[in-house]
Amino acid sequence: MRLKIDKTEEIRLAHGVGGRFSHELIEEVFLPILGNEYLNPLDDSAVLDKIKVPKDESHLISILSDLEELKMRTDEIINSYLESIVNTKTREKLEHQLWAEIIKCEVLWERK
């Protein structure tokens, strides 16, 4: 039996333990929106040896609107699932942990 996710369903603890529910959540909800050639294999990490990083900012400027839209869509997905968590303390704790991880990634990115 496949788990069908829609915006009215809650994400349960079972979705976060790395088993079948986690896999189905990623495969059915996140990959259709955020998937790409690096993430679609669902490996434990993405293989990024094919990515070419431009030496100037012109490429980043040219894709800035795409990056902003991706951020908006990602925020919408995260917020819709955070809103599905009924327990306020649990929701706030998860939101705090999530933003702490995002900030940690941003700090690491800035150091490069």
Overview of the structural elements:
- This protein is mostly helical.
- Helix content is 57%, strand content 0%.
- The N and C termini lie far apart (45 Å).
* Unreliable spans: none
Oligomer: single chain
Give the rounded overall mean pLDDT. Answer: 76
Amino- and carboxy-terminal Cα gap: 45 Å
Query: How many β-strand runs?
Result: 0
Shape: globular
Helix content: 55-70%
User: How many structurally independent domains?
Assistant: 2
Total helices: the number is 4
Q: How would the blueprint of this fold be written?
A:
Elements: H1 20-34, H2 58-62, H3 64-83, H4 88-111
Write a compact overview of the structure shown:
This protein has 112 residues and is mostly helical. 57% of the residues lie in helices and 0% in strands.
Could you name the key traits of this structure?
112 residues; 2 domains; 4 helices; 57% helix
